[in-house]
Amino acid sequence: MDAQKVDMFIMANNKFFEGHQIAAIREQLIAMDDSKWVMVQTLQFKDPTTSLIVSLLGGSLGIDRFLIGDTGLGVGKLLTCGGLGVWAIIDWFLIMDATREKNMEKLQRALY
Fold first, then answer.
1. What is the pLDDT of residue 35?
2. From CA 14, how far away is CA 9, in angstroms rounded?
3. What's the whole-model pTM score?
4. How far apart are alpha carbons 73 and 66 in whole angstroms?
5. Number of structural domains, the chain?
6. Could you list the residue range(s) of the whole structural domain that residue 58 is in?
7. Residues 6+ apart with CB under 8 A from 36
């Protein structure tokens, strides 16, 4: 894969991943087949900042977990009203990292 294309992809999408993952993503994209490039470019990643805002507004209903694809945890938060509020508050600090992890999983599935 062309290094310039990969660098442009990383510059456009680096906020969706954790900082320590960027070098590994770059290496994987450079080693990737050209045939997968179109699929990787069309991936829609979840924005961690949006997840945080949704968590602040509707975290006790589990909407933040439904948004990133954690359906089981979303149902759990919905049924317990966010763990009586405790789970919702804890998720204010964890939801951005969870969103970045889900984005990384989505990219890994596309690469392999």
1. 86
2. 8
3. 0.88
4. 8
5. 1
6. 3-111
7. 110, 111
